[in-house]
Amino acid sequence: MDLDRDDIDLPEGSIFDSEDYERMQEVASTELATDILEILEENDRLSQNELVETLDSADVDDIHDKLRDLMRVALIKQRRDPNTDRKGTYSYYTLTNPGRTVLREGIDDGVHTLIRAEHDAEQKYSN
Fold this sequence. Notes:
Blueprint: H1 18-28, H2 31-43, H3 48-54, H4 60-72, E1 76-81, E2 90-95, H5 97-105, H6 107-125
Antiparallel strand pairs: 1-2
């Protein structure tokens, strides 16, 4: 079920707008995105190189582009950890709470759950 921007009723001051939710659904609906989200849930955090090794059948550039897309729609985040045994700073990706929701509930249901959560937060904190 695709989201229709006109059918999305968001609270005032919503974190995401209807276009954001549409992009989130579009980005997450690819097989590569689902694979990345599942792998990050299983492994907690991975670098781009570790993801490339795990997704050995995917193109490096495709993985890079999909990571960027997933970050733009807030389904994953990138962090840097200078305190590792590696030379230089270790840059890694992790799932965000919206990313977990979309992964666990499915793309469409997960996006709708996020929208409902925004309504619940508005009700809770608007009083």
